[in-house]
Amino acid sequence: MKRIPLTATVIIAEAADLADETGFDDVTLSAIALRLSVQTPSLYSHVRDRAALLDGITALALSELADRVAVAIAGRAGRLALRGFAEAHRVYSLESPGRWQSLQRRAGTAAVESSAARCFVALTDALLLGYDLPPGERVHATRLIGSTINGFLALERIGSFDHSEPPPEVSWRTTLDALDALLRAWPTDTEKIHR
Amino acid sequence: MKRIPLTATVIIAEAADLADETGFDDVTLSAIALRLSVQTPSLYSHVRDRAALLDGITALALSELADRVAVAIAGRAGRLALRGFAEAHRVYSLESPGRWQSLQRRAGTAAVESSAARCFVALTDALLLGYDLPPGERVHATRLIGSTINGFLALERIGSFDHSEPPPEVSWRTTLDALDALLRAWPTDTEKIHR
DNA sequence: GGACTTTACCTAATGTGTGTAGACTGGCGT
DNA sequence: ACGCCAGTCTACACACATTAGGTAAAGTCC
């Protein structure tokens, strides 16, 4: 019985797989140890504690998602880039629900300061190049896009759309079209005169 | 030492308060028992198990939020109704983070089938009356609004906006204006011809 | 008003999970 | 060959969820 030597990377990868299978909240050191045919305390040589392990999953997910987004928007602009960006998120959230869930929480500094996080900012910025927005509005557009995409996927995941027709896919497409239309005709400041 | 008799309602209310103070994930039966000056197992006479307790918090939060939304959009239409609706959500999420968090998860049937849930659907529907959308598009608009609002609040809560200027409030206002503009000029089907 | 039931709490005990301390081992450099 | 040391183990302490069964007081029936 040959044993692959334990490393933080192996443990975190196993944890991420477990998260995808049973849900992020159910990731437990004992379960991971069992899957790696190891006693639970052995894990503590490589991982500080459970919080650090979960942060590891977050960092992993962030970097995986950034990779996917990068290839999804490469060579595209405008609506196509937006669709690629959004679709990459959605596919990831459906394929790897546990990993995706690990992103929906306040992350530890390790994850926040990772290179993947910085990469992500750059990618979202690149996405907006295809739409010409006043520089001061870029942040708001970024935040809006993030809110809508993440919000949609979150609601889809928790089943908010299960009790009405039609299936989420249809609304998803509509939502992306709406976002594109919005970015194309970004409301100018004059409109804010209303109160 | 007179003791207020334990009931499911009291326990759930205490749990909700605890959730607001220490975070939804940290709601523990022992902590609640301590706060109520009672032994942990005593709670089981009134609450089936932890899952049921959390569902109770969700149902409570749903009904509280529905109440707030109701007064926030009463007598308003269009942009003002949208703002009221959104603002009610935001205030709730900031005032009662734990309760709000309890809504960001797949809920048990008890919460889903509660009258508050049905009330909520009616309220959102009422909100859209002020914008005249083709009937088939109403669902999509509902889902889009929900996605964006919930998504924004979720990102704000986990600190996604902490690393860039300006403060979230500004983007929040912009986001609501954008949503309003979008609903006012809902993209017609012809626009979907692109691919 | 006494016997009984019900209610609402208790104590005791089990199982699972996190995390620490210290013993054991097998490969490595010298 | 010898000791070092990284990495694993066993043993343990503690927290929480949950079950079982006991007890005492309040309410109900005759």
UniProtKB/TrEMBL annotation, chains A, B:
One of its GO terms (molecular function) is DNA binding. This is TetR/AcrR family transcriptional regulator. InterPro entries: Homeodomain-like_sf (IPR009057), HTH_TetR (IPR001647), MT1864/Rv1816-like_C (IPR025996), Tet_transcr_reg_TetR-rel_C_sf (IPR036271). PROSITE patterns: HTH_TETR_2 (PS50977). Transmembrane segments: none annotated.
